[in-house]
């Protein structure tokens, strides 16, 4: 096990002393390091109150190869660095003879990556520095040692200010059993169901009880269309059949300006007439659909709110999946929290209620659709939104359901589309009486969506331009944290790559964390101090703590794909060097070549049906089996004599001819070589093993581990319709048998290809996991002379 800490704030000895005095660790009674250490230990062993109990607990620790800590204490032995860190590792929940050995302590401290202090540990100043650092060091099982103590009740009997900050981070000094839960209805400047009234949007609020006595707190806002429930069966019923043919498109030179979304000129109903005011809500809730990162901050003096917005249970309007109206609805919540919009205690009485407990500062959190809406709101420059933490977020909905003129499925959801997601999240259907009033209107809207999203051509159009946030990234004024998986083939890596690139010239702070997982959260992985990083960030952004968060947190942090528990910093997501490979019959060559190859997209019907029902089997056989010989081009380099570090967007240039007047190509870049590789789905280390506050909620501890040896690993991929060679809204002509040049950027990645492995490139027609599957009689011919692969390298 290795821990990685990027949220640790370096602190002077004077400041460390002051903070330890505030925590009542440092009382000034001890005159040497050994005595002071035992004072610290006694104050940290919270389950015992007398000397005998203290000695008994000390006996559970190993101090030296031959002595437990109780004997060490009773014999009045002198503290050394080795003894301190032998005990410290045990305090941090590492096990002797499993995680470390006393005999190899120095090596094991380096291996586990424990931050250490050098010096004479009988010197009180050295001991103080070491203890302060230990309190801020992460345990084997998740949070920092100070958080472990807080979970055991360390703060219960201490008179500390609320909020309280230690090492620049908010501490768990708030009683979560006293949280106030209330519901308000925010009035949005919308009428999406056209009933003549502004849409009222339900908002669920959790806030500290201390707000009742004057404390104003910042808010973490999770915009989740899933928060009030989903309609799985309705979505499944609307899901499209993907076993359909690719169709030829009539050439057209559509200029972007022709399809650019220019807004809608709509009249918004007047605001409701306020008929009274109330300080307190009249509605509550029992259990929200929570995000455990938010739960962590509820113990630390932050309010948390969940809003599902238009078209969801107990809210007005209809679901629109990524439209400007959906963004406007989410922005309305922020405006209310900042004191700039109205809310009511219910949907009938028009009794206004204000966010009087809010300090006006908001951060948005959440993954996937939730992070997507955070990005969307950030482009609106809404007052009060100080930062977003967008995880696995969409920046362009076209790139989620389409790609380069093709209909492309989100990984794992073939046949899903914008209208399918709209009905899946239209949780208003759960309230049959409320649904009755919008049923016909919503069904009509779904039919309109089906036409506008255009699954027939797959082209970029006005519908998708409305749902593309990238042109507006330049307008972002709040600081941005992005988290994304390099193996996320649901919200694919290009989504965050394009956002990262678009933010480069925007004068805000931006941080990017790239992990090796799929579509996952990473806040419960003990190898990374994600909680601390976000605590440092949000304590600064929302509470104004001067903790150097922007300077301390790396701009680009990446999980190593070859080792467990290893995270590295990079300067940019763009390599400064290039390496070019040329196509040959079965080889990627470093020298230019001649010749060509032809493969057919048509499979025997039994094989086609087998792959249609088992996409993983198709991919395995495409890359490793003779069953796909003649149905794809697969070339490999010779064994690499040195490591290649790919960083950025791999480019493929192909000169290709289709035997018919339409076609598509799909690409995969592959690491060939038998090796243990990180599994893209984390292993569960302990169910509910991560405690988020004293007697509070828990999360599972998970970690990405090396799996059984595999023969290959897909590094990245890409897709293109041969009739969209220039851009996704212009349709090029394609003449049967005539060669055309196609250039495509694969999804950006950072990947270490180790020495002795081979780099492979697969080019094929139908992608059974992502594209339509027509099993059409199409031959593709690739001209080697004009085809190449360009790698960006660090």
Automatic annotation (TrEMBL):
The answer to whether keyword S-adenosyl-L-methionine applies is: no
Question: Do you know which InterPro entries this protein is assigned to?
Answer: Pept_S15_Xpro (IPR008252), PepX_N_dom (IPR015251), Xaa-Pro-like_dom (IPR000383), Xaa-Pro_dipept_C (IPR013736)
Q: Name one Pfam family in it.
A: PepX_N
List of catalytic residues: 368 (charge relay system), 488 (charge relay system), 519 (charge relay system)
EC class, as a word, reads hydrolase
Is Protease among the key words of this record?
Answer: yes
Keyword set, alphabetical order:
Aminopeptidase, Cytoplasm, Hydrolase, Protease, Serine protease
Listed under catalytic activity are: Hydrolyzes Xaa-Pro-|- bonds to release unblocked, N-terminal dipeptides from substrates including Ala-Pro-|-p-nitroanilide and (sequentially) Tyr-Pro-|-Phe-Pro-|-Gly-Pro-|-Ile
GO molecular function terms noted in the UniProt entry = dipeptidyl-peptidase activity
Main localization category: cytoplasm
Annotated Xaa-Pro dipeptidyl-peptidase C-terminal domain ranges read 535-790
Name where it's found: Cytoplasm
Per UniProt, residues of the X-Prolyl dipeptidyl aminopeptidase PepX N-terminal domain are 1-154
Return the EC number.
Answer: 3.4.14.11
Subunit info here reads: Homodimer.
What role is this protein assigned? Answer: Removes N-terminal dipeptides sequentially from polypeptides having unsubstituted N-termini provided that the penultimate residue is proline.
Q: Which NCBIfam families match?
A: PRK05371.1-2 (NF003781)
> What protein family is recorded?
Belongs to the peptidase S15 family.
Protein name, as recorded: Xaa-Pro dipeptidyl-peptidase
Please report the organism this UniProt entry assigns to the protein.
Enterococcus alishanensis
Q: What is the lineage of its organism?
A: Bacteria, Bacillati, Bacillota, Bacilli, Lactobacillales
